[in-house]
Design a protein that fits this description.
The chain is α+β, with helices and mostly antiparallel strands and about 60 residues long. It has one helix at about 30-40; strands at about 15-20, 20-25, 45-50. The relative contact order is 0.25.
């Protein structure tokens, strides 16, 4: 559960914001694509990869 929202799938990156902080949560299977998309950002977010073999609840 993130910000009172239940997460049912992380097949797409999820952006989490709190104050000035930003994090990107994603499934490990799309890690390369996510990292490539984040390369040129001015402010790099915290990056959280959920392991490929962990398909249970977050």
């Amino acid at each position: 559960m993130i910000h009172k929202n239940e997460i049912k799938s992380i097949t797409k990156p999820i952006i989490i914001r709190e104050g000035d902080g930003i994090a990107v949560l994603f499934h490990g299977s799309i890690g390369d694509e996510v990292m490539k998309a984040l390369e040129n950002l001015e402010k790099f977010p915290m990056v959280i990869s959920y392991p490929n073999d962990s398909t249970t609840r977050l």
